[in-house]
Amino acid sequence: MSTPPPLPRWADLVLLPFLNLCAAFLICGLIVYAIGENPFEAMGVMVRGAFIYQGGLGYTLYYTTSIIFTGLAVAVAFHAGMFNIGGEGQATFGGIGAALAAFGCAWAPGIIALPMAILGAVLAGALWGVIPGYLQAKRGSHIVITTIMFNFIAASVLVWLLAGPLIQPGQSSPQTAPLPDQTWLPGMSDMLARAGVETAHTPLNGSFFIALAALGLFWALIWRTRLGYEIRAVGQNADAAHYAGINGARVIIIAMAVAGAFAGLLATNEVLGSSHRVVNSFTAGYGFTGIAVALMGRNHPIGIFLAALLFGALFQGGAELDFEYRTISREMVLLIQGMIILFSGALAYMFNPPLARLIARMAAGREHSCE
């Protein structure tokens, strides 16, 4: 069988992910139909719950914010040729770093304390990313194995801290005391209220703007800097990059540090912006969702934002489905997410050969008609 021609870039970045998404929703729609519900009505409930019902959009963007950070953490490593499974652990350490910096700056005004808390999240996440990067670059340890193990280590460290040194006095639950007020990110509803716009109160906060800035920073880093060129060169062909004079070990270590820093920023949304304290398992699996988001978004900031928005809508719309239908539970939403991950990951290029042949045939037909 002949090898199909390569897909045009627009088809690879837009059309192919769209087909994968449609295939995932088609399978899930058939399952919903099989259990006796109308899939179109169920989809309508999800869309209204995620974007139209009061407060729905705020919750959707709140979930989107956290997923953007972990998606960027995965994408940076992908560009360097690594599979970063450690978003959960890096985000966990980001929360620890944010809390320690916030408590340490309790004496300072917000103009100092808040940036220091954000910086603490970034540095702690970067630290938890740079160690597996060093082990990969200098000791040959596989990045997938080390990042998975570091997730467990980070979770254990968090439990130890929340059950011991950082536990709120007089409290038996594993959580810290509330962070100093001046380290809290403002809520979006409060910011809009100051501008004269009344909205429903949701957890959405100023971290959303940090996420948008992180997307822009990611684009500038990867495609507009020398370091970004080196990251992409090492990811494409490490041997060729070495012969071109690029220090591959250094690039790997830096890329994992940057990935950890992005993951650590999740604490700005969950800790500084929402709960205002560190609780156990505050990462809520976002680190693993970021893997699917990076795959589906083709490791591009626009794609990552759209994929994160989709998963945020699934989280919020799924809660509405669970409320509206007795036969559809949150496990059904997990099924939809799983199908999207399946078609965006393992089966990402299932439609590639027929789609490439179809586009090539259409292009040949247009050339023939022009003649």
Give the gist of this structure:
The chain has 371 residues and is mainly alpha-helical.
Helix and strand topology:
Layout: H1 9-34, H2 39-52, H3 56-79, H4 87-104, H5 110-139, H6 143-163, H7 188-194, H8 207-224, H9 226-236, H10 238-243, H11 248-264, H12 266-275, H13 286-296, H14 301-324, H15 330-344, H16 352-370
Helix pairs in contact: 1-15, 2-3, 2-14, 3-8, 3-11, 3-12, 3-13, 3-14, 4-5, 4-6, 4-11, 4-12, 4-13, 5-6, 5-11, 8-9, 8-14, 9-11, 13-14, 14-15
Key structural traits:
single chain, 371 residues, mainly alpha
Structural summary, described in words:
By secondary structure, the protein is an all-alpha fold. The chain is built from 16 helices and no strands. The protein has a domain at 61-298. It has helices spanning 9-34, 39-52, 56-79, 87-104, 110-139, 143-163, 188-194, 207-224, 226-236, 238-243, 248-264, 266-275, 286-296, 301-324, 330-344, 352-370. α1 runs antiparallel to α15, α4 (87-104) crosses α11 (248-264) and α8 packs across α9 (226-236). The protein is globular and about 80 Å long.
